[in-house]
Design a protein that fits this description.
Blueprint (H helix, E strand, L loop, with lengths): L3 E3 L5 E3 L1 H10 L6 E4 L5 E8 L5 E10 L12 H8 L3 E10 L5 E6 L6 E8 L5 E7 L4 E6 L5 E7 L5 E8 L5 E8 L8 H4 L4 E8 L5 E7 L4 E9 L5 E9 L2 E9 L5 E7 L5 E8 L5 E8 L5 E8 L5 E7 L5 E8 L5 E8 L4 E8 L5 E7 L6 E7 L5 E7 L8 E7 L15 H8 L1 H5 L3 E3 L4 E4 L15 H20 L4 E8 L10 H24 L4 H10 E5 L7 E2 L2 E2 L1 H4 L2 E7 L1
Parallel strand pairs: 33-34
Antiparallel strand pairs: 1-2, 3-30, 4-5, 5-6, 6-7, 8-9, 9-10, 10-11, 12-13, 13-14, 14-15, 16-17, 17-18, 18-19, 20-21, 21-22, 22-23, 24-25, 25-26, 26-27, 28-29, 29-30, 31-32, 32-37, 33-37, 35-36
Length: 579
């Protein structure tokens, strides 16, 4: 799959480096999985499994063959009845391992066509999946670790219902958030009461799937529950939208754990506003993500931070060159945020990933997809600070969407597929093939990287880097760090070892060794310092856990033709230690 990434200044670029690497070595390196199914398909939510794989849910279409295909019909209406409901959506779960291989693909076979919109993990490594049937009922399914359905329950009103999200609660149960068409008395005047008004519809289930309560909330206008989040005290904040007179405004409501209303705040404005997500931050405040439309119907992103008592703490709008919106947002442990959604280019829609600081200012963004319709609907911050995303991808010249799972680095760039330790050497060797061919470095099977070009050695008694050494490190160091950081789960340590030749003027053995030990440590330190300062903060934080410098004096000097090669002994080596 070809994908493009766009920097903050919005310039479209194809990631040629990834494509060239794939072409040279026939290796798939980007963690991007497209699941192509007949008809339209999509993934709407994603989670991390306990074995560190990732699972996503959505729908794919199924075509049921007519069992009476040989039957002759004389009545057109009888024939149409026989082929009705033969094509529709079914809940789909996809599980992908660290090597971006599909481990599990399960399509539900329920009586009613349905779509899954949310997934959360159960303590036994199974899943709660929430969604709705296409005829207007709400659906909760519990799956085991192999995605076998252990039970399903249909719930809702007698009217048309829709689920927009399902969240995990602290007691292990789940809360379904959506809308229900307003119930009406037969004695009501249809035109006096209005047409098609909806209410917010909230249902709470226990960890065993037992329905605890259900409530409807709303105004005299159309109300729709969008998302919810549990506060630290067990109360629940509901994010919804209210539509009237061609306006769509935001409503925030706080309810008790039993569903009793505590407070409600309705935000009215001149502009069309669509709420998409509410999350709880580590400081126990909250952020709401909104899509705001201007007078030209161009959308942009708005983020509002508030506390449990509806006090607004921050309110920021993020303007980009092209219209864009966030479908989901989550917080890293350091307070920065990742948002995913879409951006509308002149000719197409791309999937969007955006990094945002704790003050709600955009740090960077990347766009992914081909020249068609692509969108990220959901994200999950993983245990290693990478981000799993789920959405849709549309191939060029196609009119059908495909399911899409990708993994991003926390700087919004595409993550690489995790290697297995068995083939780490082969992958490392292939990755540095140009440098090996140019006889700048050599890589041993014990994962030692040796610098072998003459201008990369140190002068006698020197530890300061030459211009040639700096020029080499300017390209070699970022390349090495990209590779190691992409596969950090396998790395125990990176050692940078300084070495010397045996000579040290006219001194005794002890002084010669000690002086060379100091010199070798200075060579290691100088190299580490230069490389460390080139990296971004994420890589630097990781390096503090794995980077080790040492001076080995002349204990491993180079021998050639049974004689010491003093020039080649004055060096630094890099050694990768796997877990």
């Amino acid at each position: 799959m070809l994908y493009k990434a766009k920097s903050t200044h919005m310039t479209k670029t194809i990631l040629l480096l990834a494509l060239i690497f794939n072409a040279l070595y026939a290796q798939k390196s980007d963690f991007s999985v497209i699941i192509d199914k007949p008809f339209n398909a999509a993934l709407f939510d994603i989670t991390e499994d306990y074995d560190r794989s990732i699972s996503a849910v959505g729908f794919s279409k199924e075509f049921k063959k007519n069992s009476n295909v040989a039957k002759t019909y004389t009545n057109a209406f009888e024939y149409l009845a026989s082929v009705s409901k033969q094509h529709g959506s079914q809940m789909q779960l996809i599980k992908v391992n660290k090597q971006a291989e599909i481990e599990l693909s399960k399509l539900a076979q329920l009586n009613r066509f349905n779509e899954a919109i949310a997934v959360v993990k159960t303590p036994d490594n199974g899943y709660f999946v929430g969604g709705y049937t296409l005829d207007g009922q709400l659906l909760l399914a519990k799956l085991d670790a192999n995605a076998n359905t252990t039970y399903t329950t249909l719930f809702g009103t007698k009217n048309y219902d829709r689920m927009n999200n399902m969240i995990l609660l602290s007691d292990g149960g789940v809360l379904a958030v959506g809308s229900s068409t307003t119930s009406r008395s037969q004695n009501e005047s249809l035109f006096e009461s209005g047409l098609g008004n909806n209410d917010i519809y909230i249902t709470r289930f226990s960890k065993n799937g037992t329905k605890l309560w259900e409530h409807k909330y709303g105004t005299e206008y159309d109300d729709e529950g969008i998302d919810a989040v549990e506060a630290q005290d067990g109360s629940i904040l509901i994010l919804s939208k209210t539509s009237y007179d061609q306006h769509k405004n935001v409503t925030l409501m706080r309810i008790s754990e039993n569903g009793d209303k505590i407070w409600l705040k309705h935000y009215k404005g001149e502009k069309l506003v669509l709420p998409t997500r509410i999350i709880r931050l580590r400081d126990n405040n909250f952020i709401v993500s909104l899509i705001v439309y201007d007078e030209m119907r161009k959308e942009h992103i708005r983020l509002i931070k508030f506390d449990l008592y509806k006090n607004v703490l921050l309110d920021k709008e993020i303007f980009t060159t092209y219209p864009s919106g966030l479908n989901d947002i989550a917080e890293f442990s350091d307070g920065t945020l990742m948002g995913v959604g879409y951006v509308k280019d002149i000719h197409n829609t791309d999937a969007l990933a955006m990094l945002i600081d704790s003050n709600l200012a955009m740090l960077r963004q990347e766009h992914y997809g081909d020249e068609n319709y692509d969108n990220f609907y959901s994200l999950k911050i993983l245990h290693d600070s990478k981000v799993g995303v789920a959405g849709v991808y549309t191939a060029n010249e196609s009119q059908e969407t495909n399911m899409w799972i990708a993994k991003l680095n926390r700087d919004t760039t595409m993550a690489q597929i995790s290697l297995q330790s068995e083939n780490f050497y082969e992958q490392l060797y292939q990755y540095f093939a140009p440098e090996i061919k140019a006889q700048k470095i050599a890589i041993d099977e014990d994962l030692t990287i040796r610098l072998i070009k003459k201008n990369l050695y140190f002068a006698q008694g020197s530890y300061k880097l030459t211009e040639e050494q700096k020029l080499f490190l300017n390209s070699f160091s970022p390349k090495l760090m990209r590779f190691l950081f992409a596969h950090n789960e396998l790395i125990r340590s990176l050692e940078i070892n300084g070495h010397t030749s045996t000579e040290w003027g006219n001194t005794d053995f002890a002084h010669s060794y000690i002086n060379n030990e100091k010199l070798s440590m200075e060579r290691s330190f100088t190299t580490i310092s230069y490389m460390f300062k080139q990296e971004n903060s994420d890589v630097q934080k990781w390096l503090t856990r794995v980077l080790k410098g040492s001076g080995l004096s002349y204990s491993k000097y180079i021998v050639k033709n049974e004689l010491e090669d003093k020039e080649k002994s004055r060096r630094v080596n890099f050694k990768i230690i796997l877990k």
